[in-house]
What does this fold into?
Amino acid sequence: MWCDTGMSIASEYEHRKKLNKIREDTNKRVSDLRDHFAKIEKVKTEALKKTEEMRRAADKEITKLEEEIAKSNLTGEVKKTLTSDITLLKKEIEDRATEVRNRIAGTVIPS
It folds into this structure.
């Protein structure tokens, strides 16, 4: 009986050691995944910033162009056409920015 108890203690110790190893491996993997999710969040934030920068830069250039057109010697019909084209471009830029923001927001990040 004395040997059996010694064997069961050794056996229990080995099983607990294996359980702890599995726990450590799992914890490390979870930690690695959290690191990956943090990197994804950082990339998403940067992408949103770049989208906003793109939109603001386009707005600034369009505003400049609108001022130039207003000051120009172009005919009223040409100015009207250009203004219409500018309106369409503004809508296109906003649609693209919205599409990118929605795509970024749609990236699933588990908590």
